[in-house]
Design a protein that fits this description.
It is a single chain. The chain is α/β, with parallel strands linked by helices. The protein has 13 helices and 28 strands. Helix 8 packs parallel to helix 9. The protein is globular.
Length: about 550
């Protein structure tokens, strides 16, 4: 299956061409760092590109102050992380091993060079992506979680980091690794904790606090103005961000949970053109995010738009959940849909403790070798069942209807039926959940005769029903009876994706009548920017 970035071992020694180095010298300044100098520390802004002319730079473990990985950076190589593209923060500490000469280019000047020299841009972005891939696969990052399995707040940080492709390390309380980290930070080894580097022990951890430390959620200038604000960071929103940036529009993508949206919870997408061996939803959208950042599109996350209003000058004001506001000449609504919460007593008490709404490696750990249930009859539910069958003892796919033909792709339903580790039960629904601190059992009811039975399980994956995220629109645009946004002729719009309010466009799953597939969402997000551009010109 396709993954992000190429193999780091293949890319880490790819040098820039001499013409590239000449351009760096012209745009930057030469510096010498004495041996033992920290060139970067976790949490500092990635505000410059650093090319090594002579010397050696190592990655430092902040908890031991020793070299963290065997490989070092030497002549013809460059420092950098993927956060460089978006102006984020360093996640790793870097220190000179000996006297080191470098060329430093301010971030804005380097981004300009990359736009002017695509061959250099390709090398830089591929290497940065490969480094992030290595960190994720090795679970190697300066974000450290203690007690993820036993604390809900820490588990939410793990979910946030996992879904946003942020590298982190997780240690169980009482483990030698947890003891060592706690000792170096002078905190209790028996209490759950979220730590970034050595000096940042996060009290009352939230995704917002972690995002700020990593530079994902930078404060925008109050009433900062953009050509287009894109609300929603799923496939449609990220595709719109790519094309907006490519067309030279100043664009901001706002996402309240994780870049990737509902597609980001899909463990494997096999029917997206160009990926014959499949690709996870998170990896697919992450690639788009990197593209968008390369073109200058900015991201604000986790941030939720609480209200949208049209101003007297025809522009729009989007107010975030923290009260901050930004202005836009045009708005693209790409908030997608979310799985419905089932009306079952105590279900919310087990969310994150046996009840999940996505099926990734992060959730699969909790059902290893155990009976697992998935509710739903769509592609997402089928992909989740296939993915979980690799680690669970057995997966039971619970379908309220009598067939999958109308809601699931044929290739996927055929695989489910042929997999001995999966059982499909039709005409059944969950009416109760049971357990103490963690889910232990479900009560299932037969939809035909009303009989009930107990089903012991430690994990239930809910992927049923789709509710549009449109409450924040505050009556500004016309919605259909289910809350989806009307567009085109149905809304009196001048284009297929125009809503009833000129300047507001809707794409992807949130749009009434849209085809609920990743490929169609990407296509709509790509095409809508031409309509937004046309509106901005008039």
């Amino acid at each position: 299956m396709e993954t992000i970035g190429r193999d780091l071992r293949e890319m880490q020694r790819v040098p820039l061409a001499q013409s590239h180095v000449t351009a760096l010298r012209a745009a930057g300044v030469a510096r010498r760092y004495p041996a033992g100098t920290f060139v970067s520390r976790p949490g500092e802004p990635v505000d410059r590109f650093i090319y090594v002319v002579d010397g050696e730079i190592e990655v430092v473990n902040p908890f031991t102050d020793e070299r963290h990985v065997p490989a070092t950076l030497g002549p013809t190589q460059f420092m950098g992380e993927i956060s460089f593209l978006d102006g984020g923060s360093w996640s790793m500490a870097m220190r000179t091993v000996r006297d080191t000469d470098v060329i430093e280019v301010p971030r804005t000047d380097m981004l300009r060079l990359m736009s002017e020299i695509p061959e250099m841009s390709d090398i830089v972005i591929t290497v940065l992506a490969a480094r992030r891939r290595r960190q994720i696969e090795a679970r190697d990052g300066n974000l450290v979680l203690l007690g993820e399995d036993s604390d809900g707040a820490v588990r939410r940080i793990a979910d946030f980091a996992s879904r946003n492709r942020l590298p982190y390390q997780s240690y169980a309380l009482g483990s030698p690794e947890a003891e060592a980290v706690a000792t170096s930070c002078t905190i209790s080894a028996d209490s759950p904790a979220v730590i970034f580097g050595k000096d940042n022990v996060i009290s009352d951890p939230t995704p917002d606090k972690v995002a700020r430390l990593l530079g994902l959620n930078r404060e925008l200038v109050e009433d900062e103005s953009f050509d287009v604000v894109i609300v929603g960071g799923g496939p449609a929103g990220v595709a719109a961000g790519v094309y907006a940036g490519a067309e030279g529009l100043s664009a901001l993508v706002v996402e309240d949970t994780a870049i990737g949206g509902q597609a980001g919870t899909s463990s494997r997408i096999e029917n997206y053109m160009g990926f014959p061996t499949g690709i996870s939803g998170a990896d697919l959208v992450w690639r788009g995010e990197v593209q968008a950042m390369k073109f200058g599109t900015r991201f604000a996350m986790p941030r939720r738009v609480a209200n949208l209003e049209r101003l007297g000058d025809g522009k729009f004001c989007a107010t975030f959940d923290n009260g901050q506001r930004v202005r836009a000449g045009a708005v693209v609504v790409a908030t997608g849909v979310q799985y419905r919460r089932l009306p079952i007593d105590r279900l919310s008490a087990f969310e994150g403790n046996g009840v999940y709404y996505s099926a990734t490696e992060n959730e699969a750990r909790f059902c290893r070798g155990a009976e697992t249930a998935v509710i739903g009859g769509g592609n997402s539910a089928g992909q989740a069942a296939m993915f979980l069958s690799r680690s669970a003892k057995h997966v039971r796919l619970l379908v309220r209807g009598s067939s999958l033909a109308a809601s699931m792709s044929h290739y996927l339903s055929s695989r489910l039926e042929a997999d001995p580790a999966i059982t499909i039960e039709y005409g059944v629904e969950v009416i109760a959940v049971d357990g103490d601190e963690h889910l232990e059992a479900l009560t299932l009811r037969n939809c035909d005769d009303g009989t009930t039975r107990n089903f012991p399980t430690c994990a239930l994956f809910v992927m049923v029903g789709a509710a549009p995220n449109t409450g924040w629109l505050s009556g500004l645009v016309d919605l259909d009876e289910k809350g989806f946004v009307r567009t085109g002729e149905a809304a009196g719009g001048h284009s297929q994706y125009a809503t009833s309010c000129p300047g507001v466009f809707a794409v992807g799953d949130v749009r009434a009548g849209s085809i609920k597939r990743v490929a169609s969402s990407v296509g709509e997000g790509s095409v809508v920017i031409s309509s937004a551009w046309e509106f901005l010109q008039t």
